[in-house]
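Supplementary notes for students who missed Thursday's class. We covered one full example, reproduced here. Read the sequence, then the structure, then the short commentary at the end.
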Amino acid sequence: MESQLLPILTQIRDYIWGLPLIILLVGTGVFLTIRLRGLQLRGLFYSLNLAFFKRKEDDQEKGDISHFQALMTALAATVGTGNIVGVAIAIVVGGPGALFWMWITGIFGMATKYSEAVLAIKYREKDEFGTMSGGPMYYLSKGLKAKWLGVLFAVFAFLAAFGIGNMVQSNSVADSVQTSLGLPYWVTGLILATFTAMVVLGGIKSIAKVTQVLVPIMIIVYFLGATIILIMKIADIPQIFALIFKSAFTPTAASGGFLGATVMHTIRMGVSKGVFSNESGLGSAPIAAAAARTPNPVKQALVSMTQTFIDTLVVCTMTGLVILSSDLWTSGYTGAELTTIVFDTFLPGGFGGFIVTVSLICFAYSTILGWCYYGEKSIEYLFSERAVKGYRIVFVIFVAIGAMLKLEVVWRVSDIMNGMMAFPNLVGLIGLSSVIALETNKYFYNKK
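Structure (token representation):
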């Protein structure tokens, strides 16, 4: 049954994640950038200041968690295997120029991420537990007056939460731990499910308390490891950047185990893996943004915008530069294996491989925590607040199950659901772009 289903699901996935969706995702980012007059560039330093420096007055505002906690929860779900595995695949399949197109996706994706958060907070509402609920399902039904689109988004997000946000992640951790430590898959599954239960059963405040500590540590450790390697290869950095820019606009010739790539193939790989990594336009991150204590939709949206900057323009860039600082990207290795081997080559005593393995585990675990909340709010929208407790218990059980299964079918379904989330969300962003622009102009006018 699985062997018959897999080719069909693969074909559906490739169709959904084809050129039309990629153009729509990037095109929406370009459209919003123009509408907001390049806000992500002119407001970057201001948004970083808002994200990382606490303001006491915000504690008195409506919401469940702080600006920083909302950002870390969204980053927890976003910074994951895409930053290690996705970047490696993009470079191996599309050549060095793919990293350039990931940057382009990230730059325009910041405008998309900002816009999602503006709408999520503007149209959020308080549930019977007294917590905030928001996201595409709310701004599609309340803002665009298209409840059916909100229901569609919630269904896709709920299903994706059990796939890309749950079983796929626990299976990646179990596989990595079994390879490095020889631990049986079921043991890893039970441990991971236990640690997940300890956090997610407490809801968003519990998740936020963990992610605000875990996410900065895991990013800093990975960043420092990559920085040490780049300092060792500092003389090659200009040449690496030259190769990236050249390969972005000219075909990359075959060399070693690299088969070569056309410009169009390079663009497609860079954009698709960039979107997979930062999730701008998919509509997941604004669900976390809606929980923030903030006096204004724009203020938290500026904070949310930094998520794409950190994910793609910082973490993905570090991975890409480290890989390209070695000739191993043409060796035939790919994915996590390539990143691990490159780190191990430069950092002695197996320390490099240890950093990548631990980072993969932390990235995957944090993704489980973040996506549990996304699925929770989707199930709450579809049914009621009373369904949440049961959902959390089932979610934890599936963490253990996912660690022990072969997940080719789950991977395909997850990719399909992720892509399907984007369509109603992008309709909402384009249809409500005038609201986004109005809120933005009002905020900066009052600020002046």
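Commentary. The beta strands are 125-126, 132-133. The domain at 2-447 is CATH 1.10.4160 (Hydantoin permease). If anything here is unclear, bring it to office hours.
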